[in-house]
């Protein structure tokens, strides 16, 4: 394969998968878009599932997820603030939390072990970051002993993903106005008692006050 | 189209979509499976997205969802018990809460308006049922005035869906042991005060006691 061809194929497949979805693209569509022969596209991925895999493999994490992964590695704000910010951003723009190509890959992971491995690795990274942020929250006294880090992280991951899938499939997506208050309340409920030190930053105090 | 052909095509498409996924089936595979010509399959749905649509359109709701829809129409148990039962069932078998074909349809709804309409209608039914069960919960005093019915229902819908998608894409799905306790805690947090009348049935009291 000539230099640059791989990049052209990946870019075209990424765009087609975002615009038409996997049901409507294959190596022929990618070949047409890149002006390359179908057999050259096949060297990257002979099936549409392969094309989805190579695209998702090189997909950056969305900014909301990047921010949580950075917070996990090197906390820059109180953990409660990081989670409330993420919750608000997911609600405002659920599609921004999970790329439509990653959602397609999740829906099809079970049918293709190679695709499944890529998806699993990305899920693990997101989940590990959330588990670490929950651990930070615990460090500030904001998580009761009876709450399990793993369960809380999985809950947060599931809510964000579910919301993104629902919003992406809804023509009339409107975030319920009461959602931010609910999210704050649910996060607060992780704590057994009033939070001793995890007072929110000024930026989030207005909608904490609503609950 | 001859009598019975439509049913044969639908049954074959339903099975192939569940076993191979939409990336790997089309009218040719359905034609082979049914021993009918591809053009007869095309009368039902010329594209793979059409095949997915007709299959999902006639898909029954999973038992967990049916039970919640019945609870919404005619409450047979306290609402808190209905929700905790659903939460426990989703966790034990997340794939049972959302059929893999419905998840594929959700992931591709944005690319096909006809598929999108089917998916939206089913989402609306699930969400309306959950909103009604939250309303029942409120009637028993278990939901604080500051919590919005819509937001709470969407949260419950999103958690179940997100969990099903994650579990379906995970080769090593294991429910975290702390999940049921967390779910009970989160449901309880919807109430401003101790629940006056929504005492759980004996069947769920053991894991409420864990939180």
Structural commentary:
Two copies of one chain form a homodimer. Chain A has 211 residues and is an all-alpha fold. Chain A folds into two domains: 5-57, Arc Repressor Mutant, subunit A (Orthogonal Bundle); 63-208. Chain A is 66% helix and 0% strand. In chain A, α2 crosses α3 (38-44), α4 (48-57) runs parallel beside α8 (113-139) and α5 (63-73) runs antiparallel to α6. The longest helix of chain A has 27 residues, at 113-139. Chain A is elongated, with a radius of gyration of 20 Å. Chains A and B meet through α4, α7, α8, α9 and α10 of A and α4, α7, α8, α9 and α10 of B.
Main pleated sheet of chain A: none
The poorly predicted ranges of chain A are: 194-211
Name the structural class of chain A. Answer: mainly alpha
Radius of gyration of chain A: 20 Å
**β content of chain A, as a range?**
under 5%
The residue-averaged pLDDT of chain A reads: 87
